[in-house]
Write a structure and sequence with these properties.
By secondary structure, this protein is mainly alpha-helical. The protein has four helices and no strands. 67% of the residues lie in helices and 0% in strands. The radius of gyration is 11 Å and the shape is globular.
Length: 69
């Protein structure tokens, strides 16, 4: 699987988790302690492993959820 495909999966999962929790990108960024620009970048590209672990912790899901359908 290419990095591009992985990035798309992670971005799609992040968008889904935000939607399930009723958060806009701006609201999520505020609660997570980052900028909306960073959130948009994570949705478009692959976040760092550290950020991915923090995202999983924030939403209470295992990191592997970001790579599954």
């Amino acid at each position: 699987m290419s990095d591009f495909t992985l990035g798309q999966k992670v971005g799609a999962k992040l968008k889904k988790l935000m939607k399930e929790n009723g958060l806009t990108q701006e609201e999520f960024a505020d609660r997570f302690g980052t900028s909306p620009r960073t959130v948009r970048r994570w949705i478009k590209d692959f976040p760092s492993l550290t950020a991915l672990e923090q995202l999983a912790g924030f939403f209470g899901v295992p990191v592997t959820d970001f790579f599954s359908e």
